[in-house]
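Page 47, continued from p. 46.
Same chain as before, 106 aa.
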Amino acid sequence: MITLKKTTTQETLLDYGFTNRDKSFLYYFKNIGFDVSFNMTIPIDLTTLKIDILDESFMQPYDYQFCLKIDPEHVLATNVKDKVEDILNRMQIDGIIEGFEEGMYI
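Result:
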């Protein structure tokens, strides 16, 4: 299970690129191409985190992992998987999150 690293603070997240336009949560957005985006939402008390991979064209979740289960060669889903794992690996290396393992269900 992916969680915030215990040393992560609001200031750390803001410095990392999260926004707090809505004062009740911190939000991270990254366009990963192919009209798909990576989104992470963290309540202001830093108790949980939520990750959404969204199809921006249809304004709905993009379940790339299900696509890969049906068709392991699915090009778009493979590209999205690689980008999502790159983002999460980088966040883990940078000390923002912990518990991420490549291949885990997001």
